[in-house]
Amino acid sequence: MSIPAPVATGTFLYLIMGVAFLGLIFASRLTGRLSKDNADIANVVVVICTFATWLFWLCAWMHQWHPLIKPIYEE
User: Where does the record locate the signal sequence feature (predicted)?
Assistant: First the structure.
């Protein structure tokens, strides 16, 4: 059994998004716009937020992939 292509693509995009945000935090830390403590907090927030939004997207996608309840059309 293989992973469906939309799940792999979406997971890859969320991974890229998380790395991009971590890169922005790292750049802000290097330029001095963020202190070390604030950068550490931002790193944790970005990781948790990226995981939570990916998990929410994955659950929504899975629920629509093979629905348990199908609509009944009345004529």
Answer: none
